Amino acid sequence: MTVYAGRRDRMRMRPTLRLRLTLLNGILLVGAGAILVLLAWLLVGDALHPSDKLQPGTQVVLDNGERLDALLWQTQLVERASRELLVKGLIALFAIGIIGIAGAYAVAGRALRPLHFVTATAQRLGEETLDQRIRYSGADDEVAELARTFDAMLDRLAGAFESQKRFVANASHELRTPLAVMRTEIDVTLSDDEADVAEYRRMAKVVRNASERANGLVDALLVLARSEAQSGRRLVRKVPADLATSVYNALSAVRAEAERMKLDVTTDLQAAPVVGDPSLLDRLAGNLIENAIRYNHLMGKLWLRTENADGHARLVVGNTGYEVDPGDVPGLFEPFRRGGWERTGSRGSGLGLSIVRAVCDAHGGTVSAVAQPGGGLEVTVRLPAAETTPVVAATATVPRAKGLGVAPG
Question: Would you tell me how many other CB atoms lie within 10 Å of the CB of residue 8?
Fold first, then answer.
């Protein structure tokens, strides 16, 4: 008997699915055969009564010349027929049971063969072998559906691993750049024996700017990680907030930059109450407004709108500026992806819109962007309104031990 060790108790053995299916098929087959034999035995016993229509005392003459009372002959005939039916029926039932069980075992093995292949593939999978697939080519049945589902899951895992590798590589590159600048400036200045105080001051400014860039990138990575950890509406903190308030605070922080660029700022901030993490919502609004100003042009336009409609709070941030290819818009929400050559040398860390997307996901909302015909971008954020979202206090329980696009950003 093929058995598997239980996951929790290694000593507890259980039969395989193939064996269980075979036993079930055998029990059903033998049970059905036994019922048929029983019915046949009962029918024979009830049907063989020819002497019931004869006169009492009637005798029958056998082929050997012997005379027997018709009732006695009938009794012997029924007993003999019933005995032969039981013996031959049980023999046939035994043979059919053996053949049926063997056939069921073979059929179950053939049907479950793709499952063994799925198991073997899963056991072989690793970070370097995620390109392997089952590619089942049998009948279009439940097993084929399972194989296709498994292949689709592997495609998603491979994409996630590739995205993670790309993210780590891009993050390393973004961090290495300011560190390289700092090291180069320090080495060049220290190697200059004639460097004066002014040169050291210049070096200090360059190092400070590079360190601020690295610190900003680290902060953005931490916010992104925090937001993604709370995706699927698993927010640790869910309190009443207002998108209009977040927009007002973010706009106040960058008003000087907007005035320096002489932007025409238009606002229509209606109440848009939501339930969520106010700090994340402030970062969401801040990133959108900072991007709208940073990638605008002199004397451009910036429009902001918040509203509450259809059970959702909406935030719209639009700006004029560089022309964006509509095909590049979805990629702006991926980490370290910038749209257009104008954005490549920007001051941002390349995490702005990816943080916006993660915050929206954490709050159960959506974000979309539309490239403007004359240049610029309009981003729309939709979050569940406060009346549709319960307020949840932040709580934490400790179990007792038991034995133990990118957006420019």
Answer: 6
